[in-house]
Design a protein that fits this description.
Length: 372
């Protein structure tokens, strides 16, 4: 009898795992809280790395699909000071395989992963409410009243994972930086000056121990993220444009006035995202019927660009462990031991990067990274 596997969360990590497991003949279902695949996908473009995200897609047989959907030229990068002076720029990161980080929007990446799955694999409108152990596996109860059973549950349900509490009681800590995220539609006409600076790629703007990252998207919109040191702020939507603009003009006082156009023209609500990180040395005793991947396992700030790549590599390594071990407990132990070690190393690097980019010498630090 086949092991029934439930993946909680239909992000890139969870969908990659489902694809890899189906290649092995596994019986797998993805439970996703979104009501349908037509729900708009927000967020910046994703740069996939050759030894993680791209590798997972290669093993999943999806390289050709990726090459049809990725955005050539979207890796064009400009580093600016807060007055919008270009300090460094380079659009060619593909000279060496290790530096090749092609960009793809979140929506097309999700679509190509969804299209690779057996029809019916993803059960939409499935917001997990509780898990209870039953017959050596788990009974899953969802907000819509439905119930399901699985022998093995994989929590790919992000920063606010409900699955994580059944694996470990280790909590994340506040990393000292809060991000405000927003999006502007039709940037060419809405904010032409910033659109021109963006040049179809990404802007990294640093100064006064603060950061602003702006990314173009294939639909003509852009997304932006401010980052600054502050006390731990409540997460959530920000629907008051006047208050948000006043906050930006006060907090980023002295910056080129053009940057305020992002807040003047952003779609509401904006999103406040205090940044958290799991302890780099986290450890727990593995269980035979439940595990984690992606942010649910190793949440960290985004300032090393590793999030989606780590999640997709988690999916690859977990699928390989399950294929190699006949005992699920041994497979999960093997996977989690390697995953925690790898994630701990990247978390340390990410925390160092987060601090360095929001230091008085943040601009010089970033330029030195790109030049190297």
């Amino acid at each position: 009898m086949k092991t029934i596997i439930a993946i909680i969360g239909g992000g890139p990590g969870g969908l990659t795992l489902a694809r890899l497991l189906q290649q092995q003949g596994a019986q797998v279902t993805v439970y996703e809280r979104d009501r349908s695949r037509e729900v708009r996908v927000q967020g910046a473009t994703l740069d996939l790395h050759h030894d993680s995200g791209l590798l997972a897609l290669e093993v999943a047989g999806l390289t050709e699909a990726f090459l049809r959907e990725y955005r050539p030229g979207a890796d064009y990068t400009r580093v600016l000071d807060n007055q919008a002076n270009i300090i460094w720029e380079d659009g060619d990161h593909g000279k060496e395989k290790e530096a090749y980080r092609p960009e793809i929007d979140r929506g097309p990446l999700r679509d190509l992963l969804l299209d690779s799955l057996t029809p019916g694999t993803v059960v939409w409108d499935s917001h997990l409410q509780s898990l209870e152990e039953m017959n050596g596996g788990w009974q899953l109860t969802f907000a819509n009243g439905s119930v399901a059973y699985a022998d093995l549950v994989v929590g790919a349900d992000g920063a606010n994972s409900k699955v994580r509490a059944l694996v470990t009681d280790i909590r994340p800590f506040y990393a000292g930086i809060t991000i405000v995220e927003g999006a502007v539609t039709d940037s060419r006409h809405t904010i032409p000056q910033i659109h021109e600076w963006l040049h179809g790629g990404k802007l990294f703007v640093l100064g006064d121990e603060k950061s602003l990252i702006v990314s173009s998207k294939g639909d003509g919109s852009l997304v932006f993220y401010t980052g600054c040191k502050t006390g731990e702020a409540p997460a959530g939507p920000w629907n008051d444009r006047d208050a948000a603009l006043a906050w930006f003009e006060s907090t980023f006082q002295g910056w080129n006035p053009a940057w305020a156009d992002l807040f003047k023209n952003a779609s509401l609500p904006l999103t406040i995202r205090p940044q958290y990180c799991m302890p780099p040395d986290q450890d727990w005793t593995s269980r035979h019927n439940i595990t984690l991947l992606g942010d649910a396992a190793h949440l960290m700030p985004p300032y090393a660009g590793e999030g989606v790549n780590m999640a997709m590599l988690d999916a690859l390594e977990l699928s390989q462990a399950l294929a190699a071990e006949s005992d699920p407990a041994a497979a999960i132990t093997r996977y989690e031991t390697g995953m925690r070690k790898r994630a701990g190393e990247i978390a340390r690097m990410t925390l160092e990067q987060t601090e360095a980019l929001h230091s008085p010498n943040g601009l010089q630090h970033l330029v030195s990274l790109w030049k190297d």
